[in-house]
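Ticket #357: bound-state structure for nicotinamide-adenine-dinucleotide.
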Amino acid sequence: MNYTPASLESFAKTILISFGCSEEEANIVADHLVRANLSGHDSHGVGMLPMYGAQVKDGNLIPNQTPEFLSDDGAIQIVDARRGFGHRMSLLALDRALSAAEQHDVAVLGMRNAGHVSRIGTYSEYCAGQGYISIHFVNVWGHAPVVAPYGSSMPGFSTNPISIGMPLQGAARPMLDMATSTVALGKVRVAHNKGEKIPAGWVLDVDGLPTDNPSDIWLHRRGALTAFGLHKGSGLGIFAELLAGAIAGKETVATGNEIPNGVFNNMFSIIINPRAFDDIEPIEARIIEFCESIKSGKPAAGTREVLLPGEPENQHRIDRNRDGIFVDDETMAQLMDIAGQFNSNIDSLKSTLKTSS
Ligand code: NAD
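RESOLUTION: The complex was predicted; output attached.
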């Protein structure tokens, strides 16, 4: 079923309030999740709520948390998110880092111990909206690693995403936002929920052979996701683990700190003021000139248009704002189930959802 973005957002917000989130936190998290759905990343959309609910029940995700700011006003900012909802904790930590960048032209943020921060591109967009370049490395801990380093048949790190955003006329353009695995684990969940097979190359089975079955790794953690781009992507995944886990955070996956329903993030972000290099007008002119030169290239065979990073997400937003956001039946059943566990009135919750015509 396709739902209107506004109704899906208020549905998500109601569920978050039932988890104990304040109105403000529920707004931030629901906005983040629906924006991920709108951007085409259903792996990081409202389908995350059952996991968040289970974590709240276990006491591992804490609504309305107050982060601890561990630095003075230097260029390096360290923030302990104390297992708060990562979406809100990240914005509070970035606000702190952005003020440091205003003072020093550059700031490095280490945010540790956050609940799931979900779609990393959100943070590049947030910094670009305030005129800053930003580069984010994230590691994932709390569960056993799921990605096989290049040359290994065994998982050695997680999907460790990276995002880079360039501020252009108030938006992040271009904007790269990617897991360092071939795909995010959530995409395997989405395929499993839809009963679909996955393309060869996403996952290795327990024998290290390519498989099209999403369920073994999603349900039983058997096998491993592949790192993207062979040895080069694997190297980036390893550095995301080291920067976010060993430096910003206090744990890499090697700590083996496994927690039921545990999916936590540490984030290492570099925030740079482009105006420290040149006036903003010539910088923007060079960005536009370069992007136009890329887009004017002849598309490769089978490709309709050369796209810049971030453009597929923009196109998805246009399409999904018009057509609504598809949520499969299994995901909707999981959402109703977690809402029921928090004593939500399911009939009134259902009535908030409006299907797209
Ligand atoms: P993806 O492969 O869909 O996209 C990766 C990047 O490639 C994006 O910047 C996109 O704009 C660009 N792109 C896609 N198609 C393109 C094309 N045809 N031409 C040019 N550029 C193109 O994304 P992914 O790697 O599957 O990651 C999905 C999401 O998962 C991201 O939002 C990421 O932040 C999130 N994630 C989060 C966590 C976490 O723990 N919080 C972990 C892993 C991933």
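RESOLUTION NOTES: The two ends are 10 Å apart (CA to CA).
TICKET STATUS: resolved
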